[in-house]
């Protein structure tokens, strides 16, 4: 199995979240098996023209990099539901089901489903494939639609705002849930709310991603494909990494490998 997922994301934090998942050997093995099951031999997956203008438009947007493969799936799904037809594209719904199974297997929430689908059908993860925050206008109709889209395991958290809301209020609420729900912000032991909410704080932690994540990933893949030595570091140059000695690079690669093993 020789497979690598490219990452085209500028933000170091989001880049790191994606890298730690898609570089996992267990994740790559799952993607490899799913591609074989779907009989996908070339990437990115090519869509055929459809009888529906809206579907062809979103395919064009996807080809130009203006939307994600998940957006194509969502559009096709809506068309099928609106026109009461079974399929617009036969591969995409199968790929979606496999991507959902893989995401669940690795304990990832719905934000990562586009990442898994893009890993499967595109081979490159772009900015629009990991949208961690979104807005949603609540009405009875929209809640009915949302309820239909939610899986049993889905658990969304909403901050309700209106015209009178202030940025500081939103920040305070976000800060509260970061501490006592997501567990992404440190809580002091003397914090009065800790005993109240300690059972609600997420036990799993997001991977730590440093500003050097892109450099370390580059080292990791160079080493994986062609064992690094001091002479090869000079030969490849590895971007601007000549200021690092071989020991530093080896330690960074070792730490990165360990972080990848959390996804089994």
Question: Can you walk me through this structure?
Answer:
This protein has 264 residues and is mainly α. It folds into three domains: 6-129, no CATH class; 157-205, no CATH class; 213-260. 52% of the residues lie in helices and 2% in strands. It has twelve helices and two strands, in the order βααααααβαααααα. It has helices spanning 12-22, 25-38, 53-63, 69-83, 91-105, 113-121, 140-149, 167-180, 194-197, 213-225, 230-236, 246-260, and strands spanning 6-8, 124-126. Strands 1-2 form a two-stranded parallel sheet. Helix 2 crosses helix 6 (113-121) and helix 10 crosses helix 12 (246-260). The protein is flat. The mean pLDDT is 80.
Summarize the structure.
By secondary structure, this protein is mainly alpha-helical. 52% of the residues lie in helices and 2% in strands.
Strand content is: under 5%
Uncertain stretches of 5 or more adjacent residues:
none
Structural class category: mainly alpha
- The total count of helices amounts to 12
Arithmetic mean pLDDT:
80
Taking strands numbered 1, 2, ... along the chain, how are they ordered across the largest sheet?
Answer: 1-2
Domain unit count: 3
SSE run: EHHHHHHEHHHHHH
Let me know the largest β-sheet: 2 strands, parallel
Q: What radius of gyration results from the CA coordinates?
A: 21 Å
Principal-axis shape: flat
Secondary structure tally: strands: 2
- Please give the alpha-carbon distance between the first and last residues: 17 Å
The proportion of residues forming helix, as a percent range, comes to 40-55%
